[in-house]
Amino acid sequence: MKRLTWLAYGTILLAAACGKSTSASDDGGGAAGGAACAAATTLAACNALTDCHAVFTAEPRTPSGSCTCPDFGCCSHFSSCASGAHATCAGDVLCKALTPYCEPGYSVETNGTCYVGCVMSSVCEP
Question: Are 44 and 12 in contact (CB under 8 A)?
Answer without folding.
Answer: no
